[in-house]
Write a structure and sequence with these properties.
318 residues; alpha+beta; PH-domain like; six-stranded mixed sheet; four-stranded antiparallel sheet; 12 strands; 49% helix
């Protein structure tokens, strides 16, 4: 994947929003440090009156840590070859940084300048600033993202009576770790609250545990290409995640897959089709009748495409 040149305007658009949030947090704190109360309002009712208070300094340090981390991430994103994945990462990070930084400035203003009541129109300001911090670097990176290269793969040369098949395994340690954490937290929540009959907490724990099992099912998968078509099966539970009969496949190939192209990592849906994405790099592409596609990121995608091409050629010959 060849990246396009990144000009000064693009670089500024990527790093400036994050730096501006850090500057806003620091300047608001310095300007009001002498007037901040020992306990400041941090949560408000729908009418703008406060119903939650906390010491300001733990909130400040957490906010500063988050916003500085996102600002540094902007510089890191400029060095990433995969601009689309960098844009997706900064989109999420910008939403977190923009909301945290704006919330801190609003809280400081409510505690030191206003009468302790948060005006409703501040909600619009909060959303606008957060959206800008997330959108500006995302759009800037997408504008310089290289086109996703795709290529045809020559079918594997086989005899007319030869049966061929291909199998590969791929996965993500991050998915495994995240799934294990979710299952552990969910199970712990259920165990800790079921005796106290806290229905809402029990339900939340069950939801977390189920979500963790779903993530674990994506942590390790097996990809198979044979005369039945393309199949993706989780290695944990052996449940099929993707099953595409050979007669539905019109063509195949290999391409460099970008998680940003599909909106992130995992089992993804888009107007193009369905994809299993755990990394940037080679992906096996099965083009279906009607224009949809099925994509699986796997290191030896070209080998899978060659075998699938041989099966499609044999079907055509029959």
């Amino acid at each position: 994947m060849t990246t396009r040149p990144t000009g000064t305007g693009t670089r500024l658009a990527v790093v400036t929003p994050g730096l501006a949030v850090v500057a806003g947090v620091v300047l608001a704190t310095l300007a009001s440090a002498g007037n901040l109360p020992d306990r400041m309002p941090i949560h408000f009712r729908s009418d703008g009156t406060a119903d939650g208070w906390s010491s300001p300094w733990p909130v400040f340090w957490v906010t500063l840590l988050v916003t500085v981390g996102v600002a540094v991430l902007g510089f890191v994103a400029l060095r990433m070859r995969d601009r689309r994945s960098a844009a997706t990462t900064l989109l999420v990070a910008g939403l977190v940084s923009g909301s945290a930084g704006t919330a801190w400035v609003v809280l400081v203003g409510a505690a030191t300048v206003g009468d302790g009541v948060l005006p409703m129109w501040w909600g619009a300001v909060f959303l606008a600033v957060t959206a800008a911090v997330a959108a500006v670097p995302t759009v800037a990176l997408l504008r310089v993202a290289a086109p996703v290269p795709a290529r045809e793969v020559a079918p594997l040369p086989v005899g007319p009576a030869t049966r061929v098949a291909w199998r590969s395994r791929v996965g993500s340690r991050w998915f495994a770790a995240l799934g294990a954490v979710l299952v552990g937290v969910g199970t712990g929540t259920v165990v800790a609250t079921v005796a106290d009959d806290v229905g809402g907490a029990v339900v939340s724990g069950v939801v977390l545990a189920v979500a963790g099992l779903a993530v674990l099912s994506l942590a390790r998968v097996e990809v198979t290409v044979d005369r039945r078509g393309l199949r993706l099966t989780t290695s944990v539970t052996r449940i099929p995640l993707m099953r595409v009969p050979l007669e539905r496949i019109e063509g195949c190939g290999c391409e460099d897959v970008s998680p940003g192209q599909w909106g992130g990592w995992g089992y993804r849906f888009s107007g193009r089709g369905v994809a299993y994405v755990v990394r940037s790099g080679p992906g096996l592409v099965a083009r279906l009748r009607g224009g949809q596609a099925r994509v699986v990121t796997v290191p030896d995608a070209a080998s899978g495409a060659a075998v699938l091409g041989a099966l499609l050629a044999a079907r055509t010959a029959d």
